[in-house]
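Why Plastid lipid-associated protein/fibrillin conserved domain-containing protein? Reviewers of the renewal asked for a concrete example.
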Amino acid sequence: MPMATTLVIPNPFTTILPRSRFSHRRFTCSSVTAQSRSAKDNLLALIADQDRGLRTQNDPAKRASIVEAIDAVAAVGAGSVTTGDSLSATWRLLWTTEKEQLFIIQKAPLFGTRTGDVLQVIDVRNRTLNNVITFPPDGVFFVRSSIEVASPQRVNFRFTSAVLRGRNWEIPLPPFGQGWFDTVYLDDDLRVVKDIRGDYLVVDRASYNWKE
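Here is what the prediction returned.
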């Protein structure tokens, strides 16, 4: 288990601007908010019955509809900064296409357990990310990563270690891999991600802060 542009603005006191030949659609704060809410609600409705992505794996049409909804949400979030302090949180998985996570969720009962919350725990200031899969009441598998903000929406990450832990035992595992993810949409309670492998992740802000 996952561009910046310099804008030169003419001085209105020294530059005579030509009259525009085109009419531009004006967006008010309320219209943007309504657009965001509509796109977000549509996405949440589509993933509501997908068991975190398990049911989507064998349903290409459903997957295409969800990806289209993700693109619509991403369009709302285009140009926004999503790599600041608001990214720091415990994020709980709602839906994903990541095969490794889905495999663990699906196969956990074979090992006499079940999968609880699947989390991403991000601390931007301390440059850390933990990918966490819980197995109630006491089990947990988590992968530690270091992170670096690369752009207004992109974060680079490098896995540093992994741990499988039970009530009275712990098995350390070697780190594996690195990559990046783009948070294409972020608000007070929802985050939508595309990553280096072309996978998608939809998470909400958990009501608690996970700690090792």
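The beta strands are 89-96, 118-123, 128-135, 139-149, 154-165, 170-173, 178-186, 190-195, 200-205. This is the kind of structural detail the renewal will allow us to pursue systematically.
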